[in-house]
Design goal:
seven-stranded mixed β-sheet, 388 residues, 11 strands, elongated, alpha/beta
Length: 388
């Protein structure tokens, strides 16, 4: 029954989308604003669509009071809907009308990126009027291929595909288009990517409004593989004039002697992996060493911090992650690591009993002459920090 209902609803939804787009292409701005206000009232105040999540996120990332977050959240909904109406009109807008409503800034940056005949990777996010950028480029003679995620509704997907291609642009599927992606770049064309989706543990965690967010590394990896520069760009809405299409300076792949594994997964960056990352496994040895030197209070304190680190997870608590970001403490590696769990148990045993299995046996066999020259009292070296 559900399948039947879905089959019946899918074409209806596509028809409604087309009806909205056709009307938006000729609708005055004043009516678009009123429609956006009406739908915002329904979604924000009546249905309360994701209202709690939006308010909580705005409070967390922008340090707002609940009242401030509620006001800003409602404005976000209204503005998003107005932008959606503007982009929906792309299915019917003429080339002349599109060019007339957009002001370009920084086109020389894109030309500089394409001058090397390696293509260019343009990156943006679901911000402003993102769907308009490939259209403007295609109309002005720039060959552009947009990587898209297919819609679950095949009728809506077909409508979106027609809208994106009607003015000369091309699309390829994000899941299966790697050959077409590489071919486009090698032919000196432009590849358009959206890079604001959560990429989980496969991404790189970067600061984002007081928190860390996982950003995809695909554009950087493609750039390193093909030599194509990365060009950030955005379309800023301006309903009192012309929308601003701003293109930023290109980022060219730099030369490096780092191993490709470390480079491709950003493992050489500060505070990551072997360049200042936090390894719970090493932390277990550290706690055990403190017990061995009779620094019991410090060992107990660091055992609590080690437990806190192991308790963190990307998807669930107590994931015993491989390693954490050295500055934020955010889990960055693979979950369910036996060595992280094993050394936590070893450290806890050492603190509770004062005994270090295996190492006590090895230390007992240590020659007396070597024991005599041990330095077991703490001292401070010029770099700061207690060592022994």
């Amino acid at each position: 029954m559900k399948t039947l209902i879905k089959k019946l609803c899918n074409p209806v939804l596509a028809w409604l989308l087309d009806f909205l787009a056709r009307n938006c292409s000729s609708m005055p701005l004043s009516r678009k604003k009123k429609l956006a206000q009406l739908l915002t009232f329904i979604a924000w105040r009546l249905i309360r669509l994701r209202r709690a999540e939006v308010i909580a996120s705005l409070q967390l990332h922008l340090d707002l009071t609940k009242s401030e977050a509620e006001k800003l959240g409602e404005k976000v909904y209204r503005h998003f809907l107005l932008n959606a109406f503007e982009m929906a009109s792309l299915a019917y807008i003429s080339r002349e009308s599109l060019l007339a409503c957009i002001q370009i800034e920084g086109l020389d940056n894109l030309d500089a990126a394409l001058a090397g005949n390696r293509g260019a990777i343009i990156v943006s996010g679901h911000f402003g009027l993102w769907e308009m950028m490939p259209h403007w480029l295609a109309i002005n003679g720039y060959p552009v291929c947009t990587v898209v995620r297919r819609q679950n509704n095949p009728h809506v997907d077909a409508w979106m595909e027609n809208m994106r291609r009607r003015l000369g642009g091309r699309t390829t599927d994000s899941g299966f288009g790697i050959r077409e992606i590489l071919r486009s770049l090698r032919q000196g064309e432009i590849l358009a990517l959206m890079v604001d989706q959560d990429n989980g543990k496969q991404g790189i965690f970067v600061p984002f409004f007081r928190r860390y967010a996982s950003a995809p590394t695909g554009p950087a990896q493609l750039s390193l593989k093909t030599g194509a520069p990365v060009v950030p760009l955005f379309m800023f809405p301006n309903y009192n004039g012309r929308h601003l299409f701003k293109i930023y300076p290109p980022i060219f792949p730099g030369e490096s002697s780092w191993r490709e594994y470390y480079r491709s997964r950003n493992l050489n960056l500060p505070h990551q992996y072997h360049n200042g990352g936090i390894w719970p496994m090493v932390g277990g040895f550290h706690v055990a060493a403190l017990v061995r030197h009779h620094w019991q209070e410090e060992a107990e304190r660091l055992l609590v911090r080690l437990a806190t680190a192991n308790q963190q997870g990307l998807h669930a608590p107590w994931e015993f992650n491989e390693w954490m970001h050295g500055e934020s403490g955010h889990p960055m590696g693979y979950a369910h690591q036996a060595w992280s769990a094993a050394m936590f148990l070893y450290a806890e045993h050492a603190v509770a009993t004062g005994k270090l299995p295996l190492f006590d046996t090895l230390l007992a066999a240590k020659p007396a002459s070597a024991v005599a020259v041990e330095e077991n009292h703490p001292y401070t070296h010029p770099g700061g920090g207690v060592v022994g």
